Amino acid sequence: DDGKMYHVQSPNKIVDNIASYGTVDVEFEQSTLTEDLAVSFERPTIYASNWGDYNVVGKDFWRIYLDDDADFQEVLLMLHAEPGVTFPVGTYPISGDISSSVALYGYADGSNYPSGCWYLKFNEGWEIATDLAAFKSGSVTIVDNNDGTYTVSVNAKDILGNTISATCSAAPKMDERSSLSTLFSATKMAHT
Fold first, then answer.
1. What is the DSSP letter of 75?
2. d(CA 177, CA 106)
3. pTM score
4. What is the DSSP letter of 106?
5. Helices marked H in 48-150 — which ranges?
6. Which member of 36, 55, 73, 135 has the greatest number of CB atoms within 10 A?
7. Which segments of 43-112 does DSSP mark as H helices, in order?
8. CA distance 11 to 29
9. How far, in Å, are 2, 9, 31, 69, 171 from residue 97 at the CA level?
10. Residue 164 near residue 34, CB atoms below 8 Å
11. Contact (Cβ atoms closer than 8 angstroms) between residue 60 and residue 50
């Protein structure tokens, strides 16, 4: 209780060092989908934040949001990518092996908030998720279009076996909207 943030390492397991110190049993279903879903983006926006080597495994931890304000859909992606890049590019298998360049499988943290990779459909106002699905397998592919935009493609399966596919192209906006990102940035500065 000294006011500092400590990183907990656990080989090949997702460790949430903010809320739960590990994955937890969730109080809600990890998928409300009843069939395959192809997510389309009428007004696509990509928000991204790079938290650096957040999990202390030599990979940069990225939070990427593929949002559509037209119909209140979001694909939340959490990736481990090679450090030192402006935006991650490549194919990332959905996995829990945080020591590799991966898209982290979906789970609920200690406060039952979505972590890892998820599909979320919200009510108007972005207040309540009316549909959701944690990604359990598949891949995320990110391509640099060499014009300031990137194309992010998702081909995933949820725990019920439903396929979730999505493709979003936009110029990423570096985002500071996450309270965890703000907390991490302040803590990172305190460590340097």
1. E
2. 20
3. 0.77
4. P
5. none
6. 135
7. none
8. 27
9. 30, 12, 22, 32, 28
10. no
11. yes
